[in-house]
Design brief:
By secondary structure, the protein is of the alpha+beta class. It has three domains: about 60 residues, Arc Repressor Mutant, subunit A, CATH 1.10.10.10; about 45 residues; about 80 residues, Alpha-Beta Plaits, CATH 3.30.70. The chain is about 50% helix and about 20% strand. It has eight helices and seven strands, in the order αβααββααβαββαβα. The strands form two sheets. A four-stranded antiparallel β-sheet has the order 5-6-4-7. A three-stranded antiparallel β-sheet has the order 1-3-2. Strand 5 and strand 6 form a beta hairpin. The chain is globular, with a radius of gyration of 20 Å.
Length: about 200
């Protein structure tokens, strides 16, 4: 119950944009102190939740935050497609067809459960200039697009990750894991030191 409530609060904040503690308390029928406790759990789990005080205050989540493609289990993906398919007659338009195509694409992706000690599970954001090298490196199945940005989640050999990401320059941003970002910064510092 507790985990599902924390998850429900996450989804609610993502959908609403900004939500007050009072609204969350009413919506989920919990005390304001429980709201604070559950939001703190989200922050402790690495979700970038921000709060602001005052009459227009509330909780919001960083616009850069993206749920992983593994967010839905395979069964949930199939159910979601079925739900949309059954309501297709209500919204028989191009938008519905596009939504179904996107969800089916997500449903086809394999859940990454890479247990090799020599692999790193990467989450990347990148622009079109890095698209082909990242497709070749991680595979096309793990790439999605949102506006002008592309996102990838895939397993990469640990021994080549930092060098490969450096070769892509400013066209790629490592969303996770944090230690890969730190390794890139360290290697950049070493390069600057060697070139000085």
């Amino acid at each position: 119950m507790k985990n599902s409530l924390v998850f429900a609060i996450l989804i609610y904040i993502l959908n609403k944009g900004k939500v007050s503690r009072g609204e969350l308390s009413l919506r989920f029928e919990i005390s304001p102190n429980s709201v604070v406790r559950y939001v703190t759990e989200l922050m402790n789990a690495g979700i970038p939740v921000y709060s602001s005080r005052g009459p227009n205050g509330g909780y919001c989540i960083s616009e850069d935050f993206r749920l992983s493609s593994t967010f839905f289990s395979p069964e949930e993906k199939k159910r979601l497609i079925a739900l949309i398919e059954t309501s297709r007659h209500l919204f028989d338009d191009q938008l519905t067809a596009t939504v179904i195509d996107k969800i089916e694409n997500i449903a086809k992706r394999k859940h990454i459960d890479y247990t090799d000690d020599n692999a790193i599970i990467l989450e990347l954001e990148f622009d079109e200039a890095a698209l082909i090298p990242i497709k070749d490196w991680l595979g096309v199945d793990y790439i999605s697009r949102n506006g002008q940005k592309y996102y990838a989640q895939g397993a990469a050999p640990a021994n080549e990750t930092v060098g490969k990401l450096l070769s892509l320059g400013a066209h790629v941003k490592v969303l996770s894991p944090k230690y890969v970002r730190e390794a890139i910064l360290s290697e950049c510092a070493n390069i600057i030191t060697r070139c000085s």
